[in-house]
């Protein structure tokens, strides 16, 4: 069972080392879940003397006013033999065998945190005492409750101390050790008053009466010790501390304990209660009770730790990795983030994520519809055919067939296909830009670093624009190729009209009659439709090759090349994480370290029934 108190001691030390003092914060707290015993009392209640009696050593600072200005977590470890010594949590490798040095270090460490302004602090001091004269026990000594601020302290000190004490004892896992002087009315006891507020049924409060030997003659504390004046679930315990004269004479604490036992056993009023009186009995009762409370809390504590670890890991994963400190680490980090983004972008194109299907919609619907909307009937109207054929013949009519007229009619019709071709390139470009923005929003690390997000977005869109320009050139060249070289076989298969095309004796006006011109327009339309069908298949190939394929292959190549030229400081500007997020990650990491250590500590303890 001793392992249980030692376990809590280790967990409390880990809490302090990693910044968990049980204060209100956005972080989960392990401190509040640990069973503790908080010592509460007014400044003149004899609180310090009770603690020293339990320990058997003079080690606490003394003086007027508020002496305890920080919580003191006092961890007692029973050893079988050897010299007594003390260790502080903030001085882990230094052993104090002179307890006057312990007293001085408590004062010095308090001043380091609070200065010499007599202010208070909620950051605890950890003190471990190893002795054969103690029981395994952990106590938290809190600043004494006061009613008036002394010189050099703000008026709020009274309320500040009360708030600090309340913040400890209001937690359901806190056992309250309420110290009250027997020579004062319990109704006015600071410790009882504040304990009653947070534990009205007295279910987790131990009452301790001090200064029993200083009561007025003819009076005694029997009613109080028997719980008749104020009933608690646990019996009241009376103690007799050393007097100021004893302290001045450096009376040995072990001798003081012996005199305390003699006082209760020899005083008629208290003889029947002597078996449960005294500081030794108090230490044993508290140790046993703390062990039982810890044992009952272990399953819930394990469950809390496991649940919190999952929550902390989830949030840390969402916040992303911390920034590397060296240039190489930063470069690698940026490259990994960019690869993650690039992978998301490719998944959109490959159908793993939605969006890539919009490109096929452009090829299968928008391009055919745009080609279909081209008004070739206007281009090949009777008047336009006559005009172009006549102009192409010049001063001498054609002999067999109006070849130049055919070419001009075909070229003027095919040129109009540049519009749908360019529109297809632009439509795919717009879809690729949209997928860039989606991929960026789906890359958590880019949300983490705003400057890098902007740089990657700009670099990706600049690459798309270069690809669009090259793709547009290549796609328009497809149209221009159809203009530059006509498919001869198409015209060779057309029936030849010798009479209309080859007899020069007819008038020029007869040669261009409506029937003949309609035949020419029909032939040209058939050829243009054939070209349309060809371009409907070849334009998507050109666009995919020049834009989609290139975007998958080399979207950030130019950005990577420029990135390699940057120095550490320039790389650092890209990783400009929000300071609040950096601090949050650091805090979460420390808290996760604490909970993992706690999990390991609990798992290492073999529980005994």
TrEMBL record:
KW Signal (keyword) present: no
The family database entries (InterPro entries) matched by this protein are listed as:
Dynamin, Dynamin_GTPase, Dynamin_GTPase_CS, Dynamin_N, Dynamin_stalk, G_DYNAMIN_dom, GED, GED_dom
Q: Which residues are in the Dynamin-type G domain?
A: 31-299
KW Transmembrane helix (keyword) present: no
Chain ranges of the GED domain: 517-609
Show the GO cellular component annotation of the record.
cytoplasm; membrane; microtubule; phragmoplast
Subcellular location per UniProt equals: Cytoplasm, Cytoskeleton, Phragmoplast
- Pfam families hit by this protein: Dynamin_M, Dynamin_N, GED
Family annotation (SMART domains): DYNc, GED
From the Swiss-Prot or TrEMBL record, what is one GO molecular function term?
microtubule binding
Q: Which UniProt keywords apply?
A: Cytoplasm, Cytoskeleton, GTP-binding, Hydrolase, Microtubule, Motor protein, Nucleotide-binding
Q: Name one GO biological process term.
A: clathrin-dependent endocytosis
Stated family: Belongs to the TRAFAC class dynamin-like GTPase superfamily. Dynamin/Fzo/YdjA family.
Write the protein's name. Answer: Dynamin-related protein 1E
Record organism: Capsicum annuum
Taxonomic lineage of the native organism: Eukaryota, Viridiplantae, Streptophyta, Embryophyta, Tracheophyta
